[in-house]
Task: structure prediction
Amino acid sequence: MRICAARLKAANPVLFFIAVSVMNRHTVAQSVIEGRIIDSNKNAVPQANVMLLKSGDSSLVRASISGKDGSYSFHNVPGGGYMVMAASVGYSRSYSEYLFVEENKNIVTVAPLTLTETFTSLREVTVSAKKPLLEQKVDRLVINVANSITSAGNTALQVLERSAGVVVNRQNNTIAILGKEGVNIMINGKLSYMPASAVVQMLDGMGAGNIEKIELITTPPANLDAEGKAGYINIVLKQNDNFGTNGSFSGTMGYGKGWVTQANLNFNQRKGKINIFGDLSFSRIKSSFPATSYSRISNNGNIYEVYGNLDRMDTTRQHNARAGLDYQLSSHTVVGILLTSNGRWFRQSEHSAGSFYLNGKLDTLVTGANSELNNWQHYGINLNLQHDFAKGGNLSFNVYYLHYKNDQPVNYYTRYYNKSGTFIFDETTRSGKLTPLHFWVGAIDYSKKLSDKINIGTGIKGTIAAFENDGSFERFVQLNWTKDPSLSATYTLKEDYSAAYVSLNVAASKKTTVQGGLRYEYTNSNLGTESVKNIVDRHYGKLFPSLFVSYKLNEKNTVSLSYSTRISRPTFNDLAPFTYYGIRNSLLTGNPGLQPAIAHAITAGYSFKKYFFSVSFTKEDNAITGFQPNVDSTFHRTILTPENLENQKLVSVVLSVPVTVASWWGMQYNITGVWQQVNALFKNEQVRIEQKNIRINMTQSFTLPKEFSIELSGYYQSPNANGILLFKSSGSIDFGVRKKLGARDAINFTVSNIANSNDFRAYTDLPEQNIVGNIHLRFFWRTFKLTYTRNFGKEKLKSSRNRITGAEDEKSRVQY
Result:
């Protein structure tokens, strides 16, 4: 056959960015690769699947089926390094040797590939390839949620709460890794862009049944945004690579201090050049949340003390939906569209009681009846394109729009009594918060393998963000609602920033790998109201370097060293003031004066087989900490607001220890130790708090006869700190048993928080600063759950494409 080709002139990455929009195809001098597929008796194997793979990353180039005589051929093959893989039902796979195709060579003949018959069933292969629950890698910890029995029927947030080194603060709606807050949440490699509080709430409604794994990325490279000192949490949803229609669904029913219901569905339909995929989860959780609190305020020699009790019932409904389509324009180009939606409907009713003491004697009694709605709605659309160049380059383009809207009205009714219990007066108030958020994001990323030892990546990104926060507080006086102007305002924030990065990955030797990167980000941010302009008006740019070095001592031992600089910008919720009352003398609000924080981190690691040990040090200037108590002694109330600390220093030590006791019994221990020093300025006085804490995560897995398996997991968190707020110890023990019902079905029974020990207990004891108080919340109760799971669709022929689309490989973005 005559092969026609034309040579493409060399171009640098910048020219590729320009040219990709007008290039329909490119040609180089191309060749033919041919060969035969035979069995162990040297007979031809017809109808075998034959795939041409790139030698560098095993990505698919072409696919074919062998003829009656076992022959196959690939035409119009560009120059480069390849290998051929053959597979057929009832045979083990076979791979060719490395093939180098010269651009001017017409035909390359591959030695016959021999397929060996195998009598192992598909089910047996699946079991033997089962991933461990936890995989500790150099730059991340991978939690294989799909393999966890005790995760069945849980939410994504509950899985994170039981993960090594992760601390979830439900009161402040924050997530920390290794003692550091400022975590970015990604879904399949895409940042959520939601405010931190909304992310926590979204994860609390996302069923674990649709999650394949969770990656805790503590050493992000330069191609990921510099936002967030703690790194990234990437939630990877289940996907299916089989032809035809495939997927799974699960349903959960449980009871704690209320009913728990959950349903999850994921599907994939792949035919020809089109792949349609999606997932849907729904949950409804009802539970009781009791709380107690205490505060003490000193003013002009008088001591004011408040004891509070809260009895709250919450009902939360939530859905998460995702649907996408990928279309393969050619063997080198894939375009896709992805639609996302999330809705959360929160209903709360609570009764509170407060006892006010003056100088140790009862003065006033207060009771309250409050109700709250907190609704979040989200939708987004992403358009993406990924193109693989013949000489090893890869270009991806993404643009997407995201919209969020939060509506949070709260009604308060309060009655006051004297110390004898005689009614004095009542008060009716209400607060409101309506916040729409909009994001436009565009990004281009290019990577190229310059040689067998050097890979380069570069990219640019632009973001435009805007939001309005209409916060109000009103009192019902003389049959009319009167707005309190000191607690009401409409804030508007406009923010845009651009970024560019370059990264280099070098295999310096057979034992040494070096990865370096430099990222530059420039930010414009403006916050104001109709009456007060430019409350915040910032324009700043900064370089963020990163360096990672890994040295392989031998096949079993590896050491690594990394350094990075990162930024934590104030979230929208932290900047925009709002008002939320607990009891009458305690309220939460935002802080428009927050400054961005800069963190410098260095980490050293050592791995031996599956064991891993690391030590890291982080210093963060202007560290942003969650709701911190400030005292208004004039009105005898405590105001909780996010604050900037002078700095925060952290030393964390991580030890991962897997233990195989027997073929049917395995254990995993992850131990995280943290030393923390907080330096803050309160009322012009220096405050320093030092604390050490340890977190231990344990999992015990047992494989029993007759398709039964058992898992016992738990964690212990010693006392720790968040700014000047100190937390007491907490922990949980969970138990689960799984019974497989054939190849497709399974049923799980789980008991979470068996000892009712997973409580939120925090306190502040700084009498010299007039800040003394504590709070005890119970977010969790012992809960029993039953979950049924079923897989559906074809299980045989695997997809002939082995690619990552723009919808699945999009670079992460910054979280506000």
Notes: The radius of gyration is 29 Å. The CA atoms of residues 4 and 29 lie 7 Å apart.
